[in-house]
Specification:
This protein has about 325 residues and is an alpha/beta fold. The protein is about 50% helix and about 10% strand.
C-alpha cells in the first residue's frame, strides 16, 4: 500500500486538478495516436512512441515503455486500443524508482534514528528550492515536529533573506551568518543548535550553482563532512529540487547534481503550471532516484508526497483499480 492511501479525498482532487494540463496534453495526443485503430499494432506503437518522446518523458524511458508494451502485446496476441491507458499505468508504475519512505505517513520521519533528521536541499536557482524548504518546514511543523532551518546558500544575499521570510512565515527558528559566510560553518552551527534544542528536523539550504561541477561537489561534500562530525548519519536525505516547467533541462540538472553528490530524493515543483509533467517519469526512471515530493501551487499546503500509482493514473486515466 502506498503512502497516498493516507491522503483524504481533497488532496487527491488537488493532485488531479494540478495535473490537468499534463493530462489533457497526454490524452489528446494518445487519442490521435490510436484514431481509427481497434487493436494495438506497430503503427499505434510508433505513434505512441512519438507522443511520449515529445512529451518530456525522454527518449531512453520512452523506448523502455514501448518495449514493455510491445512485449505484452506480443504475448497476449490481441489487445484493444481501449486497454492502452491501462497498460501505460501498469508498466510505467513498475518502472519508477521505489521509495524507502513509501510506508511512512506523509511528512513524518523514521522513528528508529538519532534525531534530528537532517535534510540537505540542493538545486539550481529559480526552481523553487527555498519555497520548497518553507513548505517542508510548514508540513513537518503541522505534524508536531520541531524544525530548524539553516541558510547555507551564502553566495546570494537574496537566498538568505528569502529563507528568513519563510522561517518567519512558518514560525520556525533559522540559523544564518549572512552573505559570504562559509556554507559548511552555517550547516555545522545549524545542526549544533538543533541538537541543543532537541529538534526533530533540520533543513539545510545550499547554493544553487557554483562556478563548475568540481566546486559544487567540493562544497556539498564539505557541508556533509562537517555535519557528520556532530551526527555520523547526516544528512539522512539529500533532496534535489527540480522545476517541471523546464522539461528536459530538469533531466540535465539531475545529471549534474547526481554527479556532484549522492541524491536520494527528488522534489518536482510547479507541476500545476505546465503540460510537461511527463518529465517526472523520465527523471525517476533514468536516475532511479525516488520522487518524494511534488509541488502543485503557491500555498504552504501545496506540497504533496508523491505516490507513483496515483500520479500516473491522474495523467493517463483511471488505469488499474
Amino acid at each position: 500500500m502506498g503512502i497516498f492511501s493516507f491522503f483524504n479525498k481533497e488532496k487527491k482532487n488537488d493532485l488531479e486538478k494540478g495535473l490537468e494540463k499534463t493530462k489533457e496534453g497526454f490524452l489528446q495526443r494518445i487519442a490521435r495516436a490510436v484514431a481509427g485503430k481497434s487493436t494495438i499494432d506497430d503503427e499505434v506503437l510508433d505513434n505512441l512512441e512519438e507522443v511520449l518522446a515529445t512529451s518530456d518523458v525522454g527518449v531512453d524511458t520512452t523506448l523502455k515503455i514501448i518495449d514493455r508494451i510491445n512485449a505484452r502485446v506480443s504475448k497476449d496476441k490481441y489487445m484493444s486500443t481501449k486497454e492502452l491507458n491501462h497498460l501505460l499505468v501498469e508498466e510505467i508504475a513498475d518502472m519508477l524508482a521505489p521509495s524507502q519512505w513509501d510506508n511512512l505517513p506523509p511528512f513524518t520521519i523514521p522513528e528508529n534514528l538519532q534525531k534530528p533528521y537532517v535534510i540537505m536541499v540542493v538545486g539550481v536557482n529559480g526552481v523553487g528550492k527555498t519555497t520548497t524548504i518553507g513548505k517542508l518546514a510548514y508540513q513537518f511543523k503541522q505534524n508536531g515536529y520541531h524544525v530548524v532551518l539553516g541558510a547555507s546558500d551564502t553566495f546570494r544575499a537574496a537566498a538568505v533573506d528569502q529563507l528568513k521570510i519563510w522561517a518567519e512565515r512558518v514560525d520556525v527558528p533559522i540559523v544564518s551568518q549572512g552573505m559570504g559566510a562559509d556554507p559548511a560553518s552555517v550547516a555545522f552551527d545549524t545542526l549544533k543548535s538543533a541538537m541543543a534544542k532537541n529538534a526533530d528536523v533540520v533543513i539545510i539550504d545550499t547554493a544553487g550553482r557554483l562556478h563548475n561541477r568540481v566546486n559544487l561537489m567540493n562544497e556539498l561534500t564539505k557541508i556533509k563532512k562537517v555535519m557528520q562530525k556532530l551526527q555520523p548519519d547526516a544528512p539522512h536525505e539529500i533532496l534535489l529540487v527540480l522545476d517541471a516547467t523546464t522539461g528536459q533541462n530538469a533531466i540535465e540538472q539531475a545529471k549534474q547534481f547526481s554527479a556532484a553528490t549522492a541524491i536520494n530524493a527528488l522534489a518536482v515543483t510547479k507541476l500545476d503550471g505546465t503540460a510537461k509533467g511527463g518529465v517526472v517519469i523520465g527523471i525517476s526512471d533514468q536516475f532511479q532516484i525516488p520522487i518524494k515530493y511534488i509541488g502543485l501551487g503557491e500555498q504552504m499546503k501545496d506540497l504533496q508526497m508523491f505516490d507513483k500509482q496515483t500520479f500516473i493514473e491522474s495523467i493517463f486515466g483511471e488505469g488499474l483499480k
